[in-house]
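Ligand-bound model needed. fe (iii) ion.
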Amino acid sequence: MTVQLWRHCRVATLQPSHPAPYGLIEDAALVLEGGRIAWVGPRRELPADLAARCTGEHDAGGALVTPGLIDCHTHLVYGGDRAHEFELRLQGASYEDVARAGGGINSTVKATRAATEAELEVQSLKRLRALVAEGVTTLEIKSGYGLAFEHERKALRVARGLGRSQPVDVRTTFLGAHAIPPEFAGRADAYVDEVVRMLPLLHAEGLVDAVDAFCERIAFSTGQTERVFQAAHALGLPVKLHAEQLSDSGGAELAARYGALSCDHLEWLGEQGAAAMAAAGSVAVLLPGAFYFLRETKLPPVALLRQHGVAMAISTDCNPGSSPCTSLLLMLNMACTLFRLTPEEALAGVTRHAAKALGLDDRGVIAPGKRADFVLWDVAHPAQLACALGANPRLQTVFKGELV
Ligand code: NIG
Ligand code: FE
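Prediction:
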């Protein structure tokens, strides 16, 4: 097995126990073995016997190193686009108006159903490449624009395929309960039956890592959401939830009762929801792209989340309707400018806390035993990653111990 030494770098480990901000180690060395981090620390403390075992050496040229970025909430696989709705909203229509008038999620459902698996892959690959170019090494992709067995299956297969062909680890989430498809209009409960029927079939094909739903007055009630969660739990699958995006529907409390990995959006989250999430260890996934793009004015309760010790993750929410965004670095900036997170909280939100939101404890920090997924950046200080607008200072990515 090769043992690789990386030196001449500054490592933002993001380890919570490390006393320096960002877990920063100056003049650091990193040793990789078998796709994992074997050692990280100040170069002068590198054990001589470990140094002697190194079979290869890389000079990082003084770069800043962070864990590989993790985009923990995306709807990246979809057909078509919704630029026309953008125009309508610019003329005064709201996101909910557009959805109620038959646009919104269902217009993407139409385009996604019409696309072949190969066509979907071509469109989705462009978006995925943009994320990977900014240092994303783990990515969650939800279904939810098929809303019928064969089309949900097609989208999840595309997501899995992207993870096989590209240098990124893809985690799939079944979001069958995203919207009520046209053939079930006015029959939401019957559609939930269908979601509950699809889930074990998709799971049996190895296509589902987690289960999500959209709990909102324009989507599914808490009662309907709970039925989906019960079906997930029966299969041993973790759940997460689009909760309190447009109203306080009690979704976060419900999700917490099911031990949700995360509750996402959360602009309307209240005290009880935050307390329930804290008790359950659910991560708050904040989505500044959707907040910005829909020109929301209600801010997620960041002070409340801090007060309750709820871990905050940040994600693109990449989707055609509410956040047509393929830049996780831009989300770092927006999390700070719009939501007032510190740059350190924002960076933890796309590394350590994003890993937690996906139930992954083998990544998100640079520490012995963790996956060797990391990024070299041409920046002097980690805060620059959140400060710059539209820059991409990525130099190189190491994925599973190998230079990409
Ligand atoms: O995360 N909130 C629900 N789902 C997506 C939007 C989907 C769409 O408009 O296509 C979201 O914002
Ligand atoms: Fe979303």
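The first helix runs from residue 48 to 53.
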